[in-house]
Amino acid sequence: MVFSVALRFLRDREGAEELAQDVFLQLYRQFARIESAAHATWWLRRAICHRCIDEIRKRKLRPRIGLEDVPEPTGPESRPDTMLQERIRKLVEALPEKARMVVVLRYQEDLDPTEISEILEMPISTVKSHLHRSLTILRGKLRPQEVCS
Amino acid sequence: MNFEDDLRAALRREQPPGGFAAKVLAAAARQDSVAAFPFWRRPAAWAVAAGFAAAAILPPAVLEYRHREEQRALEAKHELLSALSITRAKLRQTRERVHRATARHTL
Amino acid sequence: MKKKFLLFGLALPLLAQQAFDFRTLDRLDALTDHKTKITLDPDMLQLAARFLGGDGDKDAASLKSMVGNLKGVYVRTYEFDKDGQYTAADIEPFRAYLKQGQWSKIVESQEGKELSEVYVQPLPGDRFGGVAIISAEPRELTIVYISGVMNLGDLEKLEGNMGVPEIDLKNAKKPPAPPTAPPPAKEKKED
């Protein structure tokens, strides 16, 4: 969970592994305060999200091109599902950092907007707005026949 | 599959690389010991507890929330008991199969 | 310090390995109406534990204590109308997941076309990180996955009664629905 969230967010396996390790070490330092397995999971999710956002800001990895400038894919698809998933991942990775994190928490971690708002310390309305706008953008960037609904 | 299913499939969790847990443990072992967090330095926790103790009246929304939570808890308990019952049945079934196999082997 | 490290070391494999993604079994959903799907993550387990024990029942108290250490309880049971509705390939992702998490198969039993496998995730000392069961029969598939620190005694408890009612697996009845909440009292409008 921790590594996976970092990977989806940072787009960098080595960076994700390093950050995930850091977060676990942070957990280790705080271990006396952890009350249960559920608390540990909640704590880890929160920590990795905030650390990822901080890391991005530190590295200034925000894409130089806006999402609107991501070129449309061209050419026939030989392995539709794998290519589609890869393209979706790249598009998600190009979302602005907070929107990206909201999408990852919603669709990778299956959290509902209330849980996301608690973890990211963001109003629920903002979470829903990020979700709505991100889905609209992502659908728009994919070819019509690739979006089944 | 609709688009949200495609999104879930694309964002399916990835496992950390092999040896990840070992690396973390090794790093933890190298760390200096952390000063214990003194109990008296928990002002936020004490303040919240005192606030709830002082509050004599809970607003209706809170009562409604608590009732919904209780309902969820009861449903969860029923699910848990079902799950454990199935687990028990399967463990016993397995044990019986092993006994029968052992008995046949012995004969 | 040493104790903290040991506890952390015990918990880390559990925290680092993610829960199995049961959506890999979604294909089987469409093949039968007779299925049981139970998903209890840490939050739901905590909720469930609230109503366990507390009335002097030793078994229930023992169960509550065990549940307090669990991270997740997942059960999938599918009953089919005919043989051959599922294959080993449907179970393979779960087996691969267990293998990756270094779970040990402690029991494997085959009787005709009925197969049972029981796995545990070993931890230092006499502890386990969880127990998993695959029960594969021609017209029924059951997968149980219980994640969380437990000891040998807990495994024995799982096979015992612990105040858990029997259910008839062949004619599995759903538990009675909990009482519905009364509508919230409306505030009296002042004239």
Task: Walk me through the topology.
The complex is a heterotrimer of chains A (149), B (107) and C (191).
Chain A: H1 2-10, H2 13-29, H3 37-59, H4 80-93, H5 97-107, H6 113-120, H7 124-141
Helix pairs in contact in A: 1-2, 1-3, 2-3, 5-7, 6-7
Chain B: H1 3-10, H2 20-30, H3 43-54, H4 60-106
Chain C: H1 2-16, H2 26-29, E1 34-40, H3 42-49, H4 58-67, E2 70-79, H5 88-100, E3 104-111, E4 114-123, E5 127-137, E6 140-151, H6 152-159
List the main descriptive attributes of the protein structure presented here:
heterotrimer; A: mainly alpha; globular; C: 191 residues; alpha+beta; 6 strands
Describe the structure.
- The complex is a heterotrimer of chains A (149), B (107) and C (191).
- Helix content of chain A is 67%, strand content 0%.
- Chain A is mostly helical and 149 residues long.
- The longest helix of chain A is centred in the first third of the chain and has 23 residues, at 37-59.
- By secondary structure, chain B is mostly helical.
- In chain B, 73% of the residues lie in helices and 0% in strands.
- Chain B has helices at 3-10, 20-30, 43-54, 60-106.
- Mean pLDDT of chain B is 72; it is low at 32-50.
- The termini of chain C are far apart.
- The interface between A and C is medium-sized, with 15 and 19 residues.
Morphology of chain A: globular
Mean pLDDT of chain C: 77
Spatial strand sequence of the major β-sheet of chain C = 1-2-6-5-4-3
Structural class from helices and strands of chain C? alpha+beta
Tell me the structural class of chain A. mainly alpha
Q: How many strand units of chain A? A: 0
Cα-based radius of gyration of chain C, to the nearest Å? 20 Å
